[in-house]
């Protein structure tokens, strides 16, 4: 059987004034969706239920992205390409890890 993966996506993080677009890989999207496999999105949660894992994933994304959602901690890698005057020519950000608010994690610092 062929494994189906989530597509990489872009996530925009806003803190009121600043806005940053971050690349999110397919494996991290699966982690954010509580490890719901993309292969199983059409499966129902329980035999007597009409609720699918896809519905749960959609609700989870909506709660994360809706305005006024709970804050979370993100671990981001940045790459800046500057010209000779230190003017940014390119700014790339990639999401390395995601920690929902209230989840205990080892450290905010990079290893």
From TrEMBL:
Domain of life: Eukaryota
Coiled-coil segments on the chain, per record: none
Stretches that traverse the bilayer: none
GO cellular component: nucleus; site of double-strand break
Domain Shieldin complex subunit 2 C-terminal: 1-98
GO biological process: regulation of double-strand break repair via homologous recombination
Pfam families (UniProt xref): SHLD2_C
Protein's name according to its UniProt entry: Shieldin complex subunit 2 C-terminal domain-containing protein
Species for this entry: Phyllostomus discolor
Lineage: Eukaryota, Metazoa, Chordata, Craniata, Vertebrata
